[in-house]
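User: What would this chain look like folded?
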Amino acid sequence: MAPRQEGLLGELTKREIELLKRLDSGMSNREIAESVFISEGTLKWHLHNIYGKLGARNRSGALICARRAGLL
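Assistant: Here's the prediction, encoded as structure tokens.
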């Protein structure tokens, strides 16, 4: 996992980092989507991209990877 963490900050967009922070706060998908004025479908697409960039399978895995990389 360590090689994947190098340069993550450069790979994730500002929007993706913002969404990760909201995910870390424990908000539901609906709450996150409403707070940034996007649909739940759009949020799920962003989350799919975030998971891929972090090499994670789900939200908890993404949060673990993001913390290890110092993004949160």
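Helices lie at 2-5, 8-11, 14-24, 29-35, 40-54, 59-68. If you want, I can go into more detail on any region.
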